[in-house]
Amino acid sequence: MNLFGQKKGKPQEPIRPFSYIEKEVTFTNKLDGTVLKGTLTLPDEKNNYPAVILVTGSGAQNRDEQIGQHKPFLVIADYLTKAGIAVLRYDDRHLNMSVKQGWKYTTMDLAGDAKAAVDFLFLTENIDTSFIGIAGHSEGGTIAPIVASSDPRVSFIISLAGTSISGREIAFKQANVFAENPKELRFKNESTEILINEPDIKLRKQKIKHLNNTIYGSFNIIAKIKLCLWIDMTVSEWNRFFILYDPSEAWKKVTCPVLALNGEYDIQVIADENLAAIEEALKIAKNKDYSIIKVPKANHLFQIIENGNTKDYNSMVKEYLETEQTFAPEVLKVIGDWILLKYQVNKGGN
């Protein structure tokens, strides 16, 4: 622990005091009144700066998108702010809610939160409002084009491990990757079919419980509790929207500059098929300003992994937690350089 009471984290975690301005902020999604809390970092308070909003992936995550000791959004914000870019990151609306409460929102609600962040920056001092963008990771990479396709104030988007294929297709692919046995594969695939075909949440829950009893039989009390938590997420409105939504529809309307990065060793969002789908959609949008990059040896969190042998869910999580690197420095540089280049072009530079 240092003099500022900060516990030592992973090697890339920046240590206070910072060389830039850090402000606690709140802003409101006017569509439903949700109050969001976050951190705005500014290079200084003497000038106006280009800005980027960081949007987290799925699940209830804090402003640092923390997983274990890793704080990737803190690392990204620190790097970009030192490079001369203002950064806004914020806690998810459902961060401190129960599983049942937290999953009642959909990706569209979260897109509304990201749009509220854009609104906030437009009224904030030291922000160059001619150049505000969104960088989203995983589900955040789906949210970014939703906002950009409907809000011309968004000057650029960065998709980090984002998708442009339907949630239905992703769910079936992930089931094949993560299922540990034929029973689990059957359960995952048939649960997805129930989610697709049953609009009533109570009936979805009943049908998935019946499916579980049919395939697995009875459980001990601990397993039943875990199952109930899993079912609450599975039958949720968030998950049904994810399964039925096709991100390419938003991508087909994005005309601002785009940087899309996916990791070669990502087993959650497969790089080749998603990058190809993003590019195809951008061509339909007649977008002439995009960069598509598959990052060698990077996993879903953009940690560089030498072997790329991770094939199952538990090993994947173990890899995320135990890898010392939080976010590849070479990817940080690509992001920072790209934003500053587009900003220079926006300002009329060469």
Taken from the alpha-carbon principal axes, the silhouette is globular
Reported for the largest beta sheet, the result is: 8 strands, mixed
CATH second-level architecture of the largest domain: 3-Layer(aba) Sandwich
The CATH class of the largest domain: Alpha Beta
Number of domains: 2
Number of helices: 13
Termini Cα gap: 46 Å
Beta-strand percentage? Answer: 15-25%
CATH topology of the largest domain: Rossmann fold
- Structural class, from secondary structure content? alpha/beta
Q: Provide the gyration radius in Å.
A: 20 Å
Helix fraction, binned, reads 40-55%
Strand order of the largest sheet: 1-2-4-3-5-6-7-8
Descriptive report:
By secondary structure, this protein is α/β, with parallel strands linked by helices. It folds into 2 domains: 21-165 and 246-344, Rossmann fold, CATH 3.40.50.1820; 168-242, no CATH class. Helices cover 44% and strands 17% of the residues. It has 13 helices and 8 strands. It has helices at residues 72-82, 99-102, 107-122, 139-150, 167-178, 182-197, 201-216, 221-234, 237-244, 248-251, 271-284, 313-322, 329-346, and strands spanning 21-29, 34-42, 49-55, 86-90, 127-137, 154-160, 258-263, 290-295. An 8-stranded mixed sheet has the order 1-2-4-3-5-6-7-8, with helices on both faces. α11 links the parallel β7 and β8. The chain is globular. The termini are far apart. Mean pLDDT is 92; it is low at 1-6.
